[in-house]
Structure formats: C-alpha cells, structure tokens
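[Meeting: bench + compute handoff]

Bench side (C.D.) handed over the final construct sequence. Compute side (W.E.) agreed to return the predicted structure before the next meeting so the bench team could plan truncations. Sequence as handed over:
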Amino acid sequence: MRLSLLALLALPALAQEFRPFEVQWRPDAGVMADMSFLLDAPAGKDGFIRAERGHLYTGAGKRFRIWGVNLSFTGSLPRKEDAPDYAAHLARFGINCVRIHHLDWRTPRGIIDSRYPDSRHLDPDVHDRFDFFVNELKKRGIYVNLNLNVARAFQPADGVKDAADLGFAKAVTYFDPRIVELEQEYAHAMLAHKNPYTGLEYRNDPVVAMVEILNENSLIESWVNGRLTGKGPNPGNPDRTWTDIPASYANDLTMRYQEWLAARVTAADREAILREAGSPPARLKPAEFAQASPLRFRTEAAFYMELESSFFEKMASYLKNTLKIHQPIVGTSAHSRSLSPYPLLSSTSRLDIVDAHTYWQHPRYYMRDGKRLWDIPNTPMVNSPENSTVMTLGRVAVKDKPFIVSEVNHPYPNEYAAEGMLIAAAYGAFHDWDGVFWYSFSHTEPSAWKPGPPSFFDIWQDPVRMAQTAAAALLFERRDVAPARKTIGRGYSRNEVPDSLRMTSKDAPLFTPGFPPLAALAHGTRVAAFDRAYSYQPFAPSGKVTSDTGELTWTLEPADRKVVIVDTPRSQALIGFVKAAQPAARNLIASIETDFCALSLQSMEPVAIERASRLLLVAAARTANQGMTWNEKRTATLTEGTAPVTIEPVRGTVTLRNLAAAASVHLQPMDGGGKPLGSPIAAEMTPRGWQAPIGQPATVWYMVLVSRRPPGSGN
C-alpha cells in the first residue's frame, strides 16, 4: 500500500528512526561528562566583575566569558531540597552565569506578594527560597545577572493610573514619574536586601555579575511599531507584552513632546514642524512616516532618543550613587531584528554593557477562531549566513564596550536547531563577545519538571541542546576559537542614526548600506561612531568565507547544502549538511548517513585534541516528541506528541586522525545524565585514522578514551 506525502509526514517520530532519550538532572555517581572544572568557585571570590577596556574582567583581572542560561519565573525559585542538585546540574554543563528573568511576577510565579493589592511587597518565603538558591549557585562558581523590570504588573493600589490597561508597561517605564519611582523602589528592595545565606546585601555581593534595568523595552521601538498611539490593549488579544499604551499616557507623552519642542528646538525648525504637524503639533504615527519631512521625523526621533538616554542616566545614577551598587549595568537589549538598533544603541552604549537578543525563526503567533496558533518557516540557518543570528547579534556590538547576548535560541521544534548553539559559540568567540545566555533553561522549578514535550524555548529536557550546552561551554569559556585579527568599524552620521528607522526589511539585519554582510564572517565588526559616516571596502568571497584566523569556515555552495566548519586545536565541529558535503577538520572526519547534523569534538583537558586522553564527541540531529506530527509544509505541528522525548541518532562513522601515539581509541556512549550507556565502542585503526561507528546505541554524546603508547615504545 502506498502512503500519500501528507500521510508520510504525519507518521509518528518513532517510525522515522527516532529513539527515546531522556535528560537526567540528578544522576548519581559515575558522570563522565562534567564541565564544572571550567567554573572558578565560589563565584566572586576575587571580587566584583568589572567592565573595563571593552570587556568583562574578574576582580583578579582575568577575562570573564559568560556561557549562561535564563531562569524564568519559578525556574529561579527551586525548593530548598532541590536547590543544591539544581545548581550542581547547571555547573556540570559548564554554565557559569544565570539570568534571573521574570522574577517580578506576582506569586506563585514570581516574588511579588499577590496577597497585597499593590505590587510593592515581596513575598518573604519566596525571597528566602531565592536567597538560598543564589547561595548554592555561588558555591559552585555560578554568577547571577539580576533583572529589575521585565513584566511587572503595576496595580491601581500602586498609585498608577489605568493600571489594568498597561500590560507590562513597556515604553511607559521610561517617562511616567510614578512608575520610574516604583522601579527604583523595587531596585532597592532587591539590591539592598541582605541574603541570610551569604551574609551580604546583593549590592555588596560579587555573585551578582551585572544588573539589568529593563528587558526588551524601547521607546523608539514602540514608536516605530505603533505602540505609542494611545489605543490601549486589543481586547481580542490576550498578549500583555506588546500592547499600545493607554490614551492617558499617550497624552502625557504628547504634552512632554510639545514642551520639549518649545525648549530644545530652534525657532525656525519649530515653525517648520508646526506648519507640517499643526499647532499644537501631533506626534507621528507609523503610517505617516513615509510622508513626513526629514526634519519632522528626525526631530521626533531625537525626542524619544533623549528620553531613553535621560531615563538610563537617572536609573544608573540611582543604582550607583544612591544604592551604591558595585556591579556593571545593562540598560536594555536591542531585540528587534526588523528594526535598526542604532538609535537605541546610542543610549544604551553609554552604560557599562551593551546587550542584544535574537531568535532564529521565533514562532509567529496568531489568533484564528478564538485559538492562539503558531507557525515557523522551519528552514536551516546554515543556508542563510547573511541573515543568521551571527549577523543580527553582531551588529549591536560597540567598540570599547563589553557585549553580551542575554537571549538567543533556535526555538523548538525547528528541525535544524542542532546548528544554533555551536555556531553562536564559535562566532561569538571569534567576535570576542563577553557573554551568551540561552533562553531559556527552564520556566519552572525542578519539582515541576516532568518528562514530556519540550516547550518552544526551554532546553532542560532537550537532549540535543543540553549536550551542546556542555560542548559550547568548552569552546566559548575556554576561548578555544581565537578572536578576529582584524575588526571593521561601522559608523553612522547624526542623521543616519534616526533615518535608519525608515529603512525596510531588505536592509535587515545590518541596516548599513554599503557594508558587505559576509565580511562579518571573515573579520570582527563593531559600531565605532554615532556621529560620523563610514565607507566600506567591497567583499565578495567565492565558494566559502574563512575567518581571518583560519579557524572558521562557512561554505556558500551549494546554496541549499551549506556547512560550517570549526577547526581549532582543542575544539572542532562540522555543522549542517554534513552528509552531502563530507567536510573534515584536522582531527575529525565524518562519513554520515544522517542528512543534517552537528558533530563536535573537543579536548576535555588543557591540551590539543591530538594529545588529549579524553575527548567529548557530540553528535546531534533532530529532537521530537513521541507521536508528534507536522502539517504538510512542516511549518507547524498537527499534534504535539507525548513523552518520552526522542532523538534522531546521527548514524555513520567518525574517523579521528592525527592522534599522537594513540595505542587504542574507544567511544563510550553516554546517557542523558552523562554516565556510561552500554559498552565502549572500539575504534579500528585505518589508513585515515581511528574509525568507529556511531548511532547505536542511540545517544547524542560520547566520551572518547584514548590510550597512548609510552614514550620511546616506537610506532
């Protein structure tokens, strides 16, 4: 009997050679894959993390590279009986910093006490649980990025007008005096609070690596996307995140704009704007941008940019001069791929650390028949280097400023997600970024973890991304990929900065006419000026782009079967359409049957792969739920499926070559806890090197054990 194409696509995952593989977060003794040696415990033992000379440093003056994750909602509020094992679990995967995200929710999801009608009381029991967990993190060398305002639901009892229509109050947080006052009050409640388990107030505790003022919150972005018009929330849309501000706040903003025009703009320019906008002058709506004169558009953009800058200056002054915190400060992230980041960056880059967010094909949510649905393009990033997360993130880095990525992911169920983590780590190291946080490790605390379908963003139950978390920690924290030898500066004139907001999607993600995007795969790139336009040299690679260090290669042909190759002494990887391309690194050759995968090989010791006795081999392809089915275009799932989570084992052979004085090589498959799974697989010596089959038993990672001949024993 023949099956239709739709029927074939809808077959359960197990029928497509997927196999169950469960991540274990509380393994007993015998763990082979333990990256905690990368961490320097306790966190902050040498003093506070510092932002200086364009990067992050420890108190001892050593460069500090963050390989981190977000802990959202109760993900940062484990029960005390779980906290030690939870912290140890994070440390085993090499995670050295966690971003405390969405803590400002009402209980039971956050720390704000819902027993009160306002949002000004913190629940003492929840606070105690948080304190205990932070101390457990600290013991293991894991720092904390403390977020201040993410999704706080301001209440009428706070003295906040139209609180029910504010949503997360994005944009309003910049200019409403009462809300700014409440933001400072919350900062005091968190940072002046003494943790009884560390004996230190958070402002005096070096476990806090940085303090972040706002999350994904920009007046400029709200203006361009039509969320400053005063229409308020859409009754048919339950989303509280991206809502238009209420009319009362829009009126306040308009009055402030009119006062600013009178005080800050020359009489001639003001008269020209009044002739165009009327008197009193109205603010521009997005539909009016195209017809607006350059003067009117730039002037209003300057108003929002100045409001952002003055807010960050006021908050930073409060944190450093009133609260007297010691930690570097992050303003907010540049987070919209489809919008120029440069106006916002002109404000945030005045603070200590610059930040960016992006996702490869974030799910698109929409309503149909009263239901919230989603879809994704579900295509590989490796085939689109000019639109990759490397480009979107790298455009935000600013010269002489530490740069972090506090949110990034290849959201589940993208079938090419295995490419994301290693590419971000490799090119992040090449561009000399200071930190990467994956969003998210978990939205819930461990006692609520149940085997089952992964969420779009959580990685705790995703076998592929968890194994790659460990591999990428080695690559990034250890600085196995060398920084670029040359950095190309990008500059924008004072008019180009606001004018970039009027560019279209064809200019994304760089919004820099004349700059060849693929040059960012060969060299470093940073914003060098907000007051001077730069010109750029052409860059037209043929067939591939190789980094100026020679360690990274992104192939450009064929168009639909590209690969990324990482080739350094201690970390190597083959990512993408490995089956078709048959790429190789200095110590790793692969002959793979699986069409798309990511293979990485790394020394577990402070020596090159060729001389190491223990190597980590991660072989990752797709993750799926048992019984999950797709629509015909594979852009959305028809059924989510159930536990257990399954993997597509990467099948074929790997050849490890140029292993100095190797007498034998064995591949030990590992289970979801990093412990031995079955018997070791003996590699066979061939003319090309030590060759071994992979894919059976089903696993995502192996510990490679190399025994060596004693010196002087001959070949």
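W.E. noted at the follow-up: Confidence is low (pLDDT under 50) at residues 1-15. C.D. will use this when planning the next construct.
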